[in-house]
Design goal:
Layout: H1 10-21, H2 28-41, H3 45-56, H4 74-90, H5 101-110, E1 113-115, E2 118-120, H6 129-138, H7 143-146, E3 164-170, E4 190-198, E5 204-211, H8 216-227, E6 243-246, H9 250-253, H10 255-264, E7 267-270, H11 287-299, H12 312-327, H13 338-344, H14 357-363, E8 368-371, E9 377-380, E10 383-386, E11 395-399, E12 407-411, E13 414-419, H15 438-452
Parallel strand pairs: 3-6, 6-7
Antiparallel strand pairs: 1-2, 3-4, 4-5, 8-11, 9-10, 11-12, 12-13
Helix pairs in contact: 2-3
Length: about 450
């Protein structure tokens, strides 16, 4: 059988072209190479030249209308695709379910879609599901791209105490054996983990507290401890932050909390809930306070399987021992520890000192106007408070805060008190006489003067 072929394989043509390219343009060796190839395949030299010319001739890889729709002009098809994409986006629920492309085309053909420009209907049989899906993907109108999150923006405070992130999370321990207090009407309190994290350094301060839900009183008590100087020498974290970033929950909405933050000159910013900022994952913004929660629950609270704390004080002592090691660990981006980063990046004005507990309690007072009863008592939530006799029947301003066990009263521009809760009504066959005040003495004097007057 003859080994000669009527056509030259493409790889042989490429090898021949490479050999010819390495030779000078007028080299006689070029003709020898062409002749040898023609003799090898049993064809003429002209056929070899023709084959070389066809190899180098450019050819179109696609049709002339490649990338353009054929059933409609691009603008019209794009308008239909936008309507279908809008239908699918409008019908998307929280589980990600939405109208299919075929169903959306059917609605366009049978009923149409009301838009600002009016009713728009598609002719039947014009749009096909495969065609629409292909152009939705090419024009980036498909669901994955329309619901794609915007690029994440990483923010970080410039100095220490510029921003604190504050949050609360139920402990995995749930309860302790001997809580400090129990409300019989509400059952056993929940062991809650309170945390603040410095945005710049990542230093965390946390406390356990037995609470019944998220309340402003527990949050304010914790924030005072976080801002006040610590008794531990290995934990210098303190001071009033410039900004407090927290959830938009009952604490941030509480008027007493807002008044205290305004008095301390601490701005607060609430976290945007999920779904309120488009497809962006809003929880990423508070990740610096959520990360220590997970670390404590995985590295510290898992050891409670061996030994559980019995009291809130004991649980906090163990927690603070762990936090000392946690803050001594490396910073997320720097080559030193979190605590060293906090100390090294304190602003030029220094740490803003925290006020005393007494002043803090005054900040937590919310003035309230009340009318004193004829028995010189004020009843608040079933508890009676006895004030000065001169205030009987008068309207006074109560100065009573979240942390006060006593009550102060503002009357005639002066602050009176402290007053404490009194017992119930006077028992039968017992009598009580009020101490006569200045108002009573003045009234007696006016009465005596009235009896002496004569016209």
């Amino acid at each position: 059988m003859s080994s000669r072929r009527s056509a030259i394989p493409s790889d042989s043509l490429l090898q021949l072209r490479q050999r010819l390219d390495r030779l000078p343009p007028k080299s006689p060796e070029r003709a020898n190479q062409i002749a040898a190839t023609a003799q090898l395949y049993g064809i003429s030299v002209t056929t070899v030249y023709r084959a070389l010319h066809l190899v180098l001739k450019p050819r179109t890889a696609h049709r002339s209308d490649h990338g353009q729709p054929r059933i409609l002009p691009p603008s019209e098809l794009e308008h239909y695709c936008e309507l279908i994409a809008a239908l699918k986006l409008r019908t998307t629920n929280k589980s990600g379910r939405h109208l299919s492309t075929g169903r959306a085309i059917q609605l366009l053909e049978e009923h149409g879609v009301e838009t600002v420009q009016g009713l728009i209907k598609s002719p039947k049989g014009l749009l096909r599901k495969q065609t629409v899906n292909r152009w939705l993907s090419r024009w980036r109108l498909d669901q994955p791209r329309l619901l794609r999150e915007p690029p994440a923006v990483r923010f970080q405070a410039e100095n220490s105490n510029d921003c604190w992130q504050f949050d609360m999370s139920p402990s995995d321990l749930k309860h302790i054996e001997r809580p400090d207090w129990v409300d019989p009407a509400r059952g056993e309190p929940t062991l809650m983990l309170f945390s603040v994290v410095d945005d710049r350094s990542g230093v965390a301060y946390q406390e356990y507290r037995c609470v019944y839900g998220e309340d402003a009183e527990s949050a304010l008590r914790f924030l005072f401890n976080a801002m006040a100087p610590k008794t531990r020498s290995d934990f210098p974290f303190q001071g009033r932050p410039k900004l407090l970033y927290l959830d938009n929950g009952p604490v941030a909405k509480n008027h007493v909390f807002q008044n205290v933050m305004q008095s301390l000159k601490v701005d607060w910013l609430t976290h945007t809930p999920a779904g309120k900022d488009g497809p962006r994952t809003t929880a990423r913004s508070k990740g610096k306070v959520e990360r220590p929660f997970r670390t404590v629950k995985e590295a510290h609270e898992t050891l409670y399987h061996f030994h559980k704390p019995e009291t809130e004080l004991q649980a906090n002592e163990w927690l603070w021992n762990y936090l000392s090691r946690y803050n001594a660990q490396r910073h997320r981006s720097e080559k030193h520890s979190r605590l060293e980063d906090w100390l090294a990046n304190i602003g030029q004005e220094g740490v803003r000192d925290m006020c005393s507990w007494e002043q803090y309690c005054r900040f937590a007072r919310e003035p309230e106007s009340r009318k004193v009863g004829v028995d010189a008592r004020i009843t608040i939530d079933g508890t009676a408070w006895e004030v000065e006799p001169d205030m009987a029947g008068e309207t006074v301003i109560l100065l009573w805060g979240l942390f006060d066990e006593e009550m102060y009263v503002e009357f005639t521009g002066e602050t009176w008190g402290p007053y404490y809760p009194v017992s119930g009504p006077v028992p039968l066959h017992r009598y009580r006489t009020f101490r006569r005040g200045k108002a009573a003495e003045r009234a007696d004097r006016i009465h005596a003067l009235a009896r002496q007057l004569n016209i």
